[in-house]
User: Fold this.
Amino acid sequence: MKKVVLPAYNKNIIKAIRSLHVDECNPLEPGKDEVLIRVHAAPCNPSDIAFLMGGYNIVKKVPAVPGFEGSGVVVEAGEGAEDLIDKKVSFFIQEEDCGSWSEYVVSNRKKLVVLDDAMDMDQAACFAINPFTARGLLDIALLRDNHTIIQNAAGGQVAAFVRQMATDMGIEVIDIVRKERTVTRLKEEGARHVLLESDPDFEQKLKKLAAELDARLAFDAVGGALAGRIFNAMPSDAEMVAYGGLSTRPVSGIDSMDLIFRDKIISGFNLPEWREQMDDDF
Ligand SMILES: NC(=O)c1ccc[n+]([C@@H]2O[C@H](COP(=O)([O-])OP(=O)(O)OC[C@H]3O[C@@H](n4cnc5c(N)ncnc54)[C@H](OP(=O)(O)O)[C@@H]3O)[C@@H](O)[C@H]2O)c1
Assistant:
């Protein structure tokens, strides 16, 4: 089988991408509760970019095969997974010796979502990470009984799933973006509250809206100064959940008084840990 191989991590993403090449090897054998999947498609997510640069929390021994999710068809099964043969699946994979940028992968059945035959297989390649991340984040809103959330990087995929699911759950969303044209796009798509981070009145507008809508939960995918500006604009008893670091800058500018006297907190969300907390049938 063919697989894409990263020979070495490189902080320079262009050099890392240019170093990728295709190797041939024998497909792995599925063990107990495992299946062999013929891969249909695999995306390149921000986590893959971070992985190629050696800046992700998963660091495989190099040479390594990148790719943490994809779609495909089960072509072989180990003991206890025979019922999955010929099924279309989405899979999530972080194992040392496997990556989705490959013709075949072996996955434990617990890490699969079996798909309806009508599901588009290209779309299904992006099904295992971002929609579940959005759901995991919104679980925090449900647990905290928050009826409004704030999110940055609102033009991105995770944010789009958050917005759709939040609407279905009756949760209001304040979206923050960095480009004027993204404001226009999100409003055309039905987003109700969209703020531009470069607006000179950004903080005042966010503070006013957060107070009016009692927005005490924020999902931060950016970090850096923007995270601090959002945190400071939120009311007392607010929580900011960091789930991405797209700016590659440390969260900054947070007012210590907010932490000490206004019961505000910062936490983090990591999909694999959330998935482990779900029941075995997930
Ligand atoms: N913690 C977890 O378990 C978990 C799971 C899934 C994803 N993630 C993380 O979630 C983040 C979003 O993923 P995604 O798939 O939604 O990404 P995406 O579809 O590529 O979207 C990224 C969005 O972020 C915006 N953005 C990028 N850099 C920015 C910056 N420096 N300042 C402000 N906005 C910026 C982009 O804005 P423009 O449109 O203006 O370029 C784009 O709209 C990534 O960091 C990813 O690694 C974490």
In short: Residues 133 and 271 are 6 Å apart (CA to CA).
